[in-house]
Amino acid sequence: MAQIGVQASTIKSKFTELGTFETLKKVSDLGYHAIEISQVPMTPENVADMRRAQDELGLRMAALSASLTPQMGGTESLTTTFDKIVADCKALDTTMVRIGMLPFEAMGSLDLVVDFAGRADEAAKALAAEGIDLYYHNHHVEFAKFDGRFMLDVIADTAPDLGMEIDVHWAHRGGQDPVATLAQHAGRVKLVHLKDYRIGTMPPAVMEMIAAGDFAGVMGAFKDVVQFAEVGQGTLDWPAIVEQALTSGAEYLFVEQDDTYGRDPFESLAMSRDHLVSLGYSHLF
To answer: Which CATH architecture has domain 3-195+230-284?
Structure first.
């Protein structure tokens, strides 16, 4: 049965503040029993704490994250530390790895997207030989078009061995219907990200910016009214999204929020959980 879990990037600061095991314990205490690891250093100590949380708390490390090539200066990647990533998966009994973002250098042309997708497909084949599936997570940029085709469709068609991790917020922000996007990739969507989409209000400081003639600051605040939100605190149709995700074959649906705007992220995770439970999905936790 599918399971609702947490995307670790939502609480990435807590791993540093509280330590890995204590952070995972708080996730478990909130009633989540699966987590996708992202933006947490995969040091031997952290991997050991993840294993401990899995064994002692029943909190499954459902998926790990890896870039195709090193990003941000020497980080682990499928092309440079493949054996280390495989070893981490095996240490945690994890059979899913996801690429969290299209590299910026691959966004500039159709040829670059095709090249990335081809190399990602080769990585997917190599992981499959180790019993591990590779998935690709979208943002909004993949709904830009080259020659009339969405970037995401180019990636999906060029990399048939690559699964899809559909982020419904970013699909909506990219101008698409999240339900239709999930349906389009049915059978390849084993992982889904759940986060809401909210239009906020202009902050009070805008009046001071106007008085000071800081029109660049005003325009920045204007753009920032497009926000991430707790599930149920925005405008997305959650019953339709969750039902289509399940129909499309999702095994894990991870609650994620890129920014909680000053609210404690554990509180945000609790709010999202409560809303999903109120919709009748308690059996997925």
So the answer is: Alpha-Beta Barrel (3.20)
